[in-house]
């Protein structure tokens, strides 16, 4: 909000010159303006003004990046935009007009907007107190809070975070200390949830204080807890949005510190197959820390891929859980545990395994399901588990390839929303299963299982 229409034009021109985010001016026109005055090019019709206001109320996306709305006398009353968080005030206001200006930015919006800011360029604090005097004390209790009131709150919040790590001995190696905090203090999921909640409260308060120099007293704590939080998210494969997304100033401070210390901040989950993941593992300070990271990443990867090949990934998950149990019971050493984890990690890429059978990953998924059902059927008949002959394996492979080829042809556009097409696919599946001696009841059951699998493949 500017002190004059000319000032509004000046702000607009400078914002454009420095490459600032998109801005628009809404000012009133005047017949007294010179015909060729610069201000005239910023006149807007009522329809144009309505469209600008509509865009300003929207969040940023590919089509709308309007960040600044520059006004002088317009939009002071009757303007409602909850998304607005900051008002840059370069116009002396008083009484009701000042109170309305404050209210503009103080509307709740999303969980990322918990407060509003007024950047005061003309010294309105005294006038704000005068404006507040107009109202009853009960109506405005707590309306004006000094920013530094957040300092003692931030101290309390920092102590709350610190208590999570009271039993972790301090080490000279900060990387080792962070690893131990993540493993020893944050091993339980409910503890991680409580830590994230406490950390969120702390960084939100520090974010409010920045850039006041008082924020510097929390610098070391925000660095340490930010590093632990980043390591926790990486180690346990946490996919939910980071709490730092809601606190841009604190986020910038933490990320700058992490990156200056060679610690990468990943905004998306890191693939277990990537070189970045190997780098993270190699930087862990102990075999125990490495094993924890790998086992959680394997578990997350299996969970993500489970629906694409239920039989194969269920088998891997069972092997993983058995390996973890043996390590926890002391049957396996940490070194042996790491070796076992690396073996399972190497088998996560189903494409490699499928190629050994001369199949694609989709064909292999169908083969695994058909084979598992066949083994179970034969075991019931023989009253015991059995090993398949080479001839049986070949027959199962042929039927599975034929079955997938048929399903691929039948998977027309929008087949998942077409019941009649699904009936045709079920009949096709059963016809193939009858070739390997499935009885009617088993073929009926497995045809639905295979069709459900196909939903995830085609």
UniProtKB/TrEMBL annotation:
Keywords: Hydrolase, Restriction system
Domain Type I restriction enzyme HindI endonuclease subunit-like C-terminal as annotated: residue spans: 178-453
Domain Restriction endonuclease type I HsdR second RecA-like helicase: 49-121
Record carries keyword Heme: no
EC number: 3.1.21.3
GO molecular function: type I site-specific deoxyribonuclease activity
GO biological process: DNA restriction-modification system
Name used for this protein in its record: Type I restriction-modification system, restriction subunit R
Organism from which the protein derives: Methanosarcina siciliae C2J
């Amino acid at each position: 909000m500017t002190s004059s229409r000319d000032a509004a034009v000046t702000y607009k021109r400078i914002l454009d010159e420095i490459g600032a985010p998109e801005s628009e001016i809404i000012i009133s026109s005047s017949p007294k303006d010179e015909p060729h005055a610069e201000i005239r090019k910023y006149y807007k019709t009522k329809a144009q003004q309505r469209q600008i206001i509509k865009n300003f109320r929207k969040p940023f996306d590919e089509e709308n990046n309007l960040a600044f709305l520059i006004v002088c006398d317009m939009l002071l009353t009757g303007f409602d935009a909850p998304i607005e968080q900051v008002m840059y005030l370069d116009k002396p206001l008083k009484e009701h007009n000042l109170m309305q200006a404050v209210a503009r930015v103080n509307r709740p919006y999303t969980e990322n907007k918990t407060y509003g800011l007024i950047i005061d360029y003309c010294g309105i604090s005294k006038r704000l107190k005068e404006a507040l005097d107009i109202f009853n004390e009960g109506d405005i209790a707590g309306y004006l809070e000094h920013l530094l009131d957040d300092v003692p709150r931030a101290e309390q919040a920092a102590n709350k975070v610190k208590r999570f790590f009271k039993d972790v001995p301090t080490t000279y190696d900060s990387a080792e200390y962070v690893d131990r905090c993540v493993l020893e203090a944050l091993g339980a999921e409910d503890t991680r949830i409580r830590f994230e909640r406490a950390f969120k409260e702390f960084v939100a308060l520090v974010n409010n204080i920045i850039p006041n120099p008082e924020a510097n007293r929390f610098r070391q704590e925000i660095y340490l807890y930010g590093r632990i939080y980043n390591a926790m998210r990486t180690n346990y494969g946490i996919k939910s949005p980071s709490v730092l997304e809601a606190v841009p100033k604190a986020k910038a401070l933490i990320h700058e510190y992490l990156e200056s210390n060679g610690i990468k901040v990943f905004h998306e989950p890191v693939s277990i197959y990537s070189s970045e993941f190997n780098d993270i593992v190699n930087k862990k300070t102990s075999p125990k820390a490495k094993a924890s990271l790998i086992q959680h990443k394997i578990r997350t990867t299996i969970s993500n891929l489970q629906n694409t090949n239920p039989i194969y990934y269920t088998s891997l998950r069972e092997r993983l859980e058995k390996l973890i149990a043996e390590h926890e019971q002391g049957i396996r050493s940490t070194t042996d545990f790491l070796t076992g984890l690396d073996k399972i990690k190497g088998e996560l890429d189903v494409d490699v395994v499928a190629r050994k059978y001369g199949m694609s990953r989709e064909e292999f998924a169908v083969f695994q399901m058909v084979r598992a059902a066949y083994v179970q059927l034969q075991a019931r008949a023989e009253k015991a588990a059995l090993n398949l002959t080479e001839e049986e394996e070949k027959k199962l492979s042929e039927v599975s390839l034929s079955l997938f080829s048929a399903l691929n042809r039948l998977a027309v556009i929008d087949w998942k929303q077409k019941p009649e097409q699904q009936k045709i696919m079920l009949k096709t599946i059963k016809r193939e299963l009858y070739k390997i001696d499935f009885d009617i009841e088993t073929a009926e059951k497995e045809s639905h299982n295979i069709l459900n699998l196909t939903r995830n493949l085609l």
